[in-house]
Amino acid sequence: MRLLLAFCVSFLFFPTIGQFRLLSPTETGISFKNQLTENEKHNVLAYEYFYNGGGVAAGDFNNDGLIDLYFTGNMVSDRIYQNMGKMKFKDQTASAGISKGNGWKTGVTLVDINQDGWLDIYVCYSGDGDEASRRNRLYINQKNFQFVEKASQFGLDLPTNSTQASFFDYDKDGDLDCFLLNHSIKDYKRFDASVLKSQRDPQAGDRLLRNDHGKFIDVSEQAHIKGNPLGFGLGIAIADINQDSWPDIYVSNDYIEQDYLYINQKDGTFSDQLETSVGHLSQFSMGNEVVDINNDGLPDILTLDMLPEDNRRQKLLYGPENYENYKSMVRNGFYHQIMRNMLQLNNGDGTFSEIGQLAGVSNTDWSWAPLVADFNNDGQKDIYITNGYLRDYTNMDFMKFYADKELKAAQGSPTALMDIIKEMPSTLTKNYFFLNKGNLQFEDKTTAWACDQLRLSNGAIYADLDNDGDLEIVTNNVNLEASIYLNEQTQGNYIAFDIDGLLDAKTYGTKVLVYQSGQKQLREHFPTRGFQSCMMIPLHFGLGKTKVDSVQIIFPNNKKQTLLNPAINQVHKVKVQEPFGQWAVNLQAPYFKQIDTDTLPYGNVEDDYNDFKRQLLLPNMLSYIGPKTAHGDVNGDGLVDIYVGGSKGQSGAILLQQPNGSWIGTEQASIDSDIMCTDTDAIFFDADKDGDLDLYVVSGGYSYLPDDLLLQDRLYLNDGKGNFRKAEDNLVTGDLNSDSCVMTIDFDKDGDLDLVIGGRIIPGKYPFSPGSRLLQNDGKGFFTDVTKELAPALETLGRITAGKNIDIDGDGWEDLVLVGEWQPILWIKNTNGKFLSSELLLSNYPSIGWWSSLESADLDNDGDLDLVVGNYGKNNQLKPSLQTPVSLTYADFDQNEAIDPFVNYYVQGKTYPLVSRDEALNQVFSLRKKFPNYTSYADASMEQLFTPEQLSKASKLEANQFESIVLLNQGKGIFNPIPLPVEAQMSPVYAISLLDVNLDGFKDLVLAGNLFHSRIKIGRMDANYGQLFLNKGNGTFTYIPQNQSGFQVKGEVRDMVIIPQTKGSQIHFFRNNDSVKSYRLNSKK
């Protein structure tokens, strides 16, 4: 460790060629170092947050127009520095009257507590000391950099284990209240945890302190603020999250307790709406930031976690997955938590779509402070993330092979405990810079902007320290001098706003909206941000090369001030006393409105089956694939009816539409008798040419044995009145495959409808699959399997998920387009009634994907059919390309008659197995000798896992494309692939519908999907709430934000049905293990 530190210091202050230059203590005069001294009394085993570091505050303490700095020290004295100009600072600590090093300081917050126009300082304390050493302190500004401690007079000297405080006027009574973020120091076992959630812990619980005439009173319980002993609060953000002009609260919690999203109820209370607002969250949430990341005027949420960027540290620090434990934690009230950074994109309707992986900011190791600001003044907010932990406390080798045994032996011996601590590995890490490229995409600029120096950084701030219009960065480091980064960008314009000196209580929560070139930027005045840090600075906006059209300044009382064409490259001073207009949000009627009545009387009940118990290494479960539907007029009344497929243990249902738009279920004994089948697709068609619609249902699923009789597809014949009977003899028996889809096609032009069945998977033997089939109709509803004779191209096509019949080459014969998992988009040409071969529909485009859905329509009104193809999306860790495909190597490696499917993906230019050491060894026992510990596995590729002989006998699949796309038909078998907008890539797409929403003559696009049952490392993919894209008429689409589309469909959508009605078309979303969600097109839009 000492050698590593010496090496680091040797280049620590080497000048950087990039946007930021790291200044040395000699240049700045700032020599603060948060030095930790580990000993028998003070160490990470005595106090688990020993390495969490200190905070930074930026503000003008002497009102001279320059931003000064304050640093907290854990075991050393805090330091306060006066900004002398030109990046020179003077240490004013000796005469300032602040702490001389007593107690463990954590977060620091700046506030004018007595509203005298001078910044005061509130410092939080924690640690494993006695109550007196944990009392928070409040330093009242006496001017001239002198302060007097008066926390007890204000009721703010609480002896809790505090991380950070944030001041805000939650009840809008004109004074500043305080939210105090605390953390527990006790470790509770998981089986005890759920019973503690409703308890209140005076030491660990968070506090809401109401300001009553200058005295802060604890109102936590009556305000519904949680204070249980499970809370390990590490991040606090205040913002108007739901845009109702009242301040809300986001709390990041470490360990098993979930985060809190407190929405202000405007009556002195808050409601935790996290579970109705986000689909999943960080597992070990640390610092956070609530800020508009994409310039849509809505505050988004960024939380940090511990997932490393590189494969080696992932494998060393990431424990084995246990899906059953994960489900148990969710059942016990700890919600869906996954270890990685989360970027929650605000949909404007109370929900958020998590897009951290899509954006490229999910993996930054052991991270603390997220700072979101426009660091290059180009008009887009960038991200800076501090990173590092003195010792790899979660190193799996240390935890599993050393710590348990040695800790037991060392009980009662402080010296022995210190020896154990010294055995913990230590790794310096880089802080991250991400450039916002727009379109929800960020690029890692760490090396280009800041030379990639290694350190251990915690609290951080940004501020314009030299008043030149760009933002500098300051970090508080463990065992190293504080880092001062000078911003040397010279490209973009800026504008900034000083709201009445920023100190007045009435300015807290002020919003500034800057309008330019058709977009708007939002900033809110709440100084506490990131991790244990505070920025009492003007609100800064980068502008790029353009000017500002207008600025709206909205105060908490909903009064507004408008500035037209304001001057740029300066700080505007705004007075609260100046005249205002009234701010009002103009909401347009959405395109769709949820139907409260006339909903379908059906809810899918899924068989709770854990596919991972059957095949541990599956990338995703294969059992949760329904419900799929069919629709048509089954009883001849002129109204469209629906069949909804059932899951294992729930039969399918025929739902009849009524003249008034409502729906009723019907008794169908034949269908009910097949209750143990899993319906994977269905279609209405006239099988026997008697003039009514019959029903074909595909059987599939993964919970069966291969060749299970329950995998037999079914044909139900209609009596013309909507009553169905099973046609036992009309199908070839013994076709016991787990299939996925069905298409009707008159492939032989004999006037009746034949069937193509897509083969999906052999249960228990992923990725092996059955072939697909062609069933020929004799004209009377009897079907014969003619695949071998007439469709040999289908025999080996498996892992199929969807298909369409379309005349690709215009020769008058309907061809087939099939898509699937680990499959390209395939064209199976119909040659005079025979399907002899398959070929790539796209010959010069990477098209091997995990395709999941397919729909056809004439999108550009040129008279031919185009295609929309749903894929896995880009919001995941895998992100394949032609150069970096994701692959699957599979074989029975240990000769135990079980298929071992290893997913491999690229990390920093090299390919590695997706799974951890424990998962690999539990699947292939013979690997235990080769990889006796985690270090030996950390850099292993498939070539190290298995011998050349073993790999030569294995099979391999690849995928190079996860984007959902449009295929624009150019005629003569040529299709032009066009990726759908980035919003379509947020989640897997399982359902596609097309209808003209805005009545411009072009079919618009509705996408739905999501996938909840993936590996824990992949996590829930739940960002799609039903998405609307308007057709531009040329095969490209524009995303309509959720608060304008009207959709809010939570869950795993597996199908959609559009029902035309005079009151406006209905669209029904069919969700796995959930009810149907229904909407009607707003005809008044």
Describe this structure as you would to a colleague.
- The chain has 1085 residues and is mainly beta.
- It has 5 domains: 2-305 and 340-391 and 426-506, YVTN repeat-like/Quinoprotein amine dehydrogenase (Methylamine Dehydrogenase, Chain H), CATH 2.130.10; 392-425, no CATH class; 507-582, no CATH class; 624-878 and 960-1006, Methylamine Dehydrogenase, Chain H (7 Propeller), CATH 2.130.10; 886-958, no CATH class.
- Helix content is 11%, strand content 35%.
- The strands form 19 sheets. It has a 6-stranded mixed sheet. Strands 35-34-39-40-42 form a 5-stranded antiparallel sheet, with no helix packed on it.
- The longest helix is centred in the middle third of the chain and has 15 residues, at 396-410.
What characteristics describe this protein?
five-stranded antiparallel sheet; 75 strands; 20 helices; 35% strand; six-stranded mixed sheet; 5 domains; disordered N terminus; Methylamine Dehydrogenase, Chain H; mainly beta; 1085 residues
